């Protein structure tokens, strides 16, 4: 077990928040999905509704993931005009139809048949870290990418449906959280010192959907349309001591490497990953209005299985003593 503590002065935190305001304004936080017979069109906008972007997903090739991002930044009226022209250009095949509102792409997945798109369709705010909102997933939806006309028979096969049901057993509404403008997969210390681009952040050990987003990230070379889900625990409370209010935040991040049930995952694997590695962080900061200087303290602790090659037999723990009937 290792622990480290760091306390950052008011100026460092204030400078970090000032630089992150531009990041908050440039990330997209709400999306609308439309469809034609040949394409999905995802329209994303920033929180302040100052710009709109368009993502085009091909629906005619069931075996390949073809995604193209429009490099143009639109205003609201320009985006509405673009959608009108797309609708008119596809009138003969049904036009442009609204599908759903969503709050980010969890990823794309393929089993035996077509690709599926995983979307967050409802979210709820569970806290904030110095002006950066943190959300939990309230509802998700899995949408087949190809249209029904080009879908193969495999899409409705017994094995395909079994794999889809297995994926649906993962309840993303419990123990998953994300943020658009704060890297919740990293500790506060690393956030203040990190200068890496967003693409690399998905490849850290605490981003649960790294594999699911790999296809779209490699196509677009950015992470504007996806959210990085962290699996673990997030809780925030406001407390008061000696007349001063402060926020206490507890975050636990579970590694995506070598994770599993207690008795099946033990020790270390051949890649040096220990079983069920968890990073726990406690953040304490003054509850002052966003943008004002504040002192912040972060304590990070790591735990995991004993880093040796070992295993544990479950049968040896299930002791069943003989039942002896005593006759009086």
From TrEMBL:
Pfam families: Syja_N
GO cellular component labels: vacuolar membrane
Keyword Transmembrane appears in the UniProt entry: yes
Transmembrane segments: 98-120
Keywords recorded for this protein, A-Z: Hydrolase, Membrane, Transmembrane, Transmembrane helix, Vacuole
Compartments reported by the entry: Vacuole membrane
Domain (SAC): residue spans on this chain: 167-317
Signal recorded as keyword: no
Segments forming a coiled coil: none
Gene Ontology MF, one: phosphatidylinositol-3,5-bisphosphate 5-phosphatase activity
One of the GO BP terms on file: phosphatidylinositol dephosphorylation
Membrane protein topology class: Peripheral membrane protein
The organism's place on the tree of life at top rank: Eukaryota
Record's catalysed reaction(s): a 1,2-diacyl-sn-glycero-3-phospho-(1D-myo-inositol-3,5-bisphosphate) + H2O = a 1,2-diacyl-sn-glycero-3-phospho-(1D-myo-inositol-3-phosphate) + phosphate
PANTHER family, sorted: PHOSPHOINOSITIDE PHOSPHATASE SAC3-RELATED (PTHR45738:SF25), POLYPHOSPHOINOSITIDE PHOSPHATASE (PTHR45738)
Oligomeric form and interacting partners: Component of the PI(3,5)P2 regulatory complex at least composed of ATG18, SAC/FIG4, FAB1 and VAC14.
Protein name: SAC domain-containing protein
Organism (species): Gossypium davidsonii
């Amino acid at each position: 077990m290792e622990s480290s503590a760091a306390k950052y002065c008011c100026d460092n935190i204030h400078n970090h928040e000032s630089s992150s305001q531009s990041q908050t304004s440039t990330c997209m936080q709400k999306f609308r999905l439309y469809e034609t017979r040949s394409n999905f069109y995802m329209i994303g906008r920033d929180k302040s509704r100052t710009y709109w972007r368009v993502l085009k997903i091909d629906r005619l090739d069931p075996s390949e993931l073809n995604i193209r991002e429009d490099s143009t930044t639109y205003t609201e009226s320009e985006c509405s005009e673009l959608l009108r022209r797309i609708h008119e250009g596809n009138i003969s095949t049904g036009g442009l139809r609204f599908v759903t509102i969503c709050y980010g792409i969890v990823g794309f997945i393929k089993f035996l048949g077509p690709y599926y798109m995983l979307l967050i369709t409802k979210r709820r705010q569970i806290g904030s870290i110095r002006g950066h909102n943190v959300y939990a997933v309230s509802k998700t939806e899995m949408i087949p990418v190809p249209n029904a006309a080009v879908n193969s028979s495999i899409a409705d096969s017994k094995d395909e449906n079994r794999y889809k049901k297995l994926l649906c057993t993962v309840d993303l509404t419990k123990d998953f959280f994300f943020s658009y403008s704060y890297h919740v997969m990293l500790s506060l210390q690393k956030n203040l010192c990190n200068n890496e681009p967003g693409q690399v952040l998905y490849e850290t050990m605490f981003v649960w959907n790294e594999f699911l987003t790999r296809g779209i990230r490699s196509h677009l070379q950015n992470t504007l349309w996806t959210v990085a889900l962290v699996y673990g625990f997030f809780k925030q409370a406001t407390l008061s001591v000696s007349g001063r209010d402060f926020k206490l935040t507890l975050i636990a991040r579970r590694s995506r490497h070598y994770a599993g049930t207690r008795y099946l995952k033990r020790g270390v694997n051949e890649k040096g990953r220990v079983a069920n590695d968890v990073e726990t962080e406690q953040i304490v900061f003054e509850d002052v209005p966003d943008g004002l200087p504040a002192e912040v303290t972060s304590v990070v602790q790591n735990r995991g299985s004993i880093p040796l090659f070992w295993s544990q037999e479950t049968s040896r723990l299930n002791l069943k003593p003989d039942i002896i009937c005593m006759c009086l």
